[in-house]
Specification:
By secondary structure, this protein is α/β, with parallel strands linked by helices. It contains 6 helices and 17 strands.
Length: about 290
Amino acid sequence: MKTVDDWQDYKIIATSEGMKLERWKDVVLLRPDPQVIWKGDNLFGKNGIHAVYKRSEKGGGGWEIRARFPAEWEISYRDLKFKIKPMGFKHTGLFPEQAVNWNAMREIISKAKAEGREVKVLNLFAYTGGASVACAKSGALVTHVDSAKGMVERAGENARLSGIESGIRYIIDDCMKFVAREKRRGNKYDAIIMDPPSYGRGPNGETWKIEENLFDFVKDCANLLCEKPLFFLINSYTTGLQPEVLKNILTLTLKHFNGTVEAYEVGIPTEEGINLPCGASGLFKGV
């Protein structure tokens, strides 16, 4: 498992019985986490909690407010800034565990820029732009694609908070259709990032199922890579999808490029002294 331990504005305080207690700068939230199958303290009884996300027996859920806090606020990671806001389905607009991948990509981009290379990155299923902001902050030209208008707008806000006024092109579109058009146009990228959902729909009703679509989609995306790509990152939160699956997909679809492939769990250290698993990543690095 790969983790980062230099977050200052985010901490997991405790975990127990399907819940995690987190501090997002000055705001403490209690949210569900399906990985937490162990028992600890009764987190619902803890003092200082601002809001709790409670699931509904009918599906979905909502936030129970316990103490006043801003509707949205900013947190920082190194030289990056992000806007946080409790949203539907327990989300806050950021996945802090992805800092481990932001760091890896920034290191690769910075080295390429130092060698005088222009770096073009395609970020698919790009959500609120954590990876887009990280790459652009290191000098990459980023194409940010997501089908949700609100998430793309939030990505723009995060970029501006981090001092990025240019360098990111925002596209509201179905990722598969966008890739097909880029392939016809003959456009090429030095690096590709994707964080595909388990299941989703595009703006015009397009369907996505990760088990059925991921391999062929990665294969299509490989056509958009330049002759000597820098990296290709796949991240997944799909339950049961092992890191080795992502490694196998990248190995098979990128076999014509020179490079190495690694796969790993990503996680967050907690103040209890354990690591909370938060998903899987596969990373191809060109040589």
